[in-house]
What does this fold into?
Amino acid sequence: MTFDTNYFTVPIARIKDEERRSKLLKQAVVKNLSLNEIKAAIKALTPEVEPTPEKGLVGRLGEIGKRLQKSETWGDRKNRDRIAKLLDELDKLTAANE
It folds into this structure.
């Protein structure tokens, strides 16, 4: 059986732990895993990194901003005033930390 070692080693090389990398490479060769199966195995070995609270909040702010731009909320004066008040609060909070 011949195979292109780059086919296996390129995604597997991203695994930093040498023991895990070696084990997965052997498994890929023995079981003749497809590239998608190798990538799935790598993903299973790699722990999910949770975003920091700050990044989560920044992402949330970005999503809210996008929704506001697309929203028809601006047509209602009461909603528009409330949004302006909340933006003023955010502005004050961020200006105080500069």
